[in-house]
Amino acid sequence: MELACIMELAQALAEESDQVELYPQYGRLVILRNIGKIIGACDRQYVDFLCLSNGLRAFDYVFYGFKSQELRPYLHDHMLSLWAWDSMLAGSFWGFASSSSGLKWGYLAKVDSRGNHYIGAYDRARR
Questions:
Q1: Is residue 120 very low, low, confident or very high in pLDDT (cuts 50, 70, 90)?
Q2: 106: Cβ contacts below 8 Å, ≥ 6 apart
Q3: Which of 56, 58, 59, 113 is 20 to 30 A removed from 10 (C-alpha atoms)?
Q4: How far apart are alpha carbons 41 and 71 in whole angstroms?
């Protein structure tokens, strides 16, 4: 599914339900400037998402962004705390989303033929 279609669905859900919230985008330059705070690889698809919405809360899931007063922690802080929990993830798993149950989603160091990172899940309880 293309990003534009995903964002259209997210906006429709946000209008219908208070369980879905898109966070304001503070300009593409703010996002691109803060990308430098991410250590190592940066996923192009997630950057494109952040340029349309600086984070998203959908039901029990949170997709982190940058410099959002309403949505904390920031993306780079979330990644660093995840690496502090489990040093085996450092440099190989960049967490960008989580749920209240502790499940984390992120992109892996492995890239497909189109330059997109593979997405993985991490559950601290199952390590």
A1: very high
A2: 79, 82, 93, 94, 95, 96, 97, 119, 120, 122
A3: 113
A4: 23
| pTM for this entry | 0.78
Q: List, for residues 32-59, the tens digit of each pLDDT value.
A: 777 777 777 777 787 888 777 778 888 8
Residue 88: strand, helix, or coil? helix
SS3 for 8-69, per residue? HHHHHHHHHCCCEEECCCCCHHHHHHHHHHCCCCCCHHHHHHHHHCCCEEECCEEECCCCCC
Number of residues assigned to the chain: 127
Phi, psi dihedral angles at 61 (to 5 degrees): -115, 145
Stretch 6-12: mean pLDDT, rounded? Answer: 85
What CATH number does the domain located at 3-126 have? 3.40.1580.10
Task: Determine contact, residues 104/121, Cβ cutoff 8 Å.
Answer: yes
